[in-house]
Design brief:
By secondary structure, the chain is α+β, with helices and mostly antiparallel strands. The chain contains six helices and five strands, in the order ααββββααβαα. The longest helix is centred in the first third of the chain and has 11 residues. It is globular, with a radius of gyration of 12 Å.
């Protein structure tokens, strides 16, 4: 599975209710060959909520240097808190918003 596929699946699973509950913006900066930047705008009333971008601004930026680590986090094989503690995931911006990410991933 690639980072692109993870974000496509996240987009498919998102609903207007789920987006409204989270109600913020995230920028995902994923490294590696299949990496890139994706902006999740969960303030919109309808999708697609997640789009690949060249750059963007968000209230919370999640950086994962290795694509395989992001795929592991997103698929539940690697705990996000453990990844953060190991330096595999970095958060810039509002840390409380990073805690809401589990709602986006589940």
């Amino acid at each position: 599975m690639s980072a692109q596929q993870v974000f496509e699946e996240m987009n498919e699973r998102l609903t207007a209710d789920k987006a409204a509950k989270i109600n913020t913006t995230y920028l995902f900066d994923i490294g590696g060959d299949g990496g890139g930047k994706w902006l999740a705008d969960l303030t919109k009333s309808e999708g697609p909520w997640i789009q690949k971008v060249d750059d963007g601004e968000a209230k919370c930026t999640i950086t994962v240097p290795k694509e395989e680590d992001w795929v592991s986090i997103a698929t539940g094989k690697l705990n996000a808190t453990a990844a953060f503690m190991q330096g595999k995931l970095k958060v810039k911006g509002d840390m409380s918003l990073a805690m809401k990410l589990q709602g986006l991933l589940s």
